[in-house]
Amino acid sequence: MATLRISLRAGERIFINGAVLKVDRKTTLEFLNDVTFLLESHVMQAEQATTPLRQLYFIVQMMLMDPANSDAPRDLFAKSLPAMLKTYSNRDILSGLLELEELIGRGRAFEALKRLRVLIPIEDTILGKEDDNVRSLPQMDRSERQLAVGGMS
Known about the structure:
51% of the residues lie in helices and 14% in strands. The chain is built from 6 helices and 5 strands. The protein has helices at 52-65, 71-87, 91-105, 109-127, 130-133, 142-150; strands at residues 4-8, 13-16, 19-22, 27-31, 37-39. Helix 1 (52-65) packs antiparallel against helix 4 (109-127). The longest helix has 19 residues, at 109-127. Belongs to the FlbT family.
């Protein structure tokens, strides 16, 4: 199994298997086994979940942040997804939602969040909120994109 290293800045938080860790100085964590984690920069606050896809992001995020209590968010995801599939007509969003269903079904919530980060700007454009909400979307910087490609979850 590959080792995964994550560098954190002073004061940054990371959510690991339901626990919240905050580092007081720049540090590197090395994961030697499978782990479920979410970097602070990926976290969406409840007040930012103002559109259907953002709400779905928040639901999936809850699965990652508290894996021991993921039944309720999974049930909510299962109830929300069919309604969203009936609501949207944009092909990119519809195919993305079907991919989300498959990813969540396989237990790949981290990848589902990555997919949602691609879909949300499309939704913003459809809703005419492009300028207002893109800045509030959790973004991945270059190192996080590399982490997402090779990350464990």
